[in-house]
Amino acid sequence: MVQTSPALIKIAAAWLLGLMLAIAAAVIAIVVINNTVAGPQQPVRDYLQALRDGDGSKALGLLHAKVPRANAAMLDGSALKKSAERISDVKLGSPQQQPDGQSKVTVSYTIDGSQLSSDFFLQRTGTDWLFFSRWSMVPTTLPTLNVSVVNESQASLNGVPVSMPSGSNSFSVFYPGEFQGSYEGTFFKADPSRATVTGPQSPSEPLAIATKATPALVQQVDSRIHEFLDGCAKQQVLQPAGCPFYFSTNNRIIAPVQWSIAQYPKVTIDPYNGKWVIAPLAGKAQLSTKQMDLFTGAVSDLKPLQNFNFTARLDVSGSAITVTPVVDY
Question: What is the pTM of this model?
Answer without folding.
Answer: 0.80
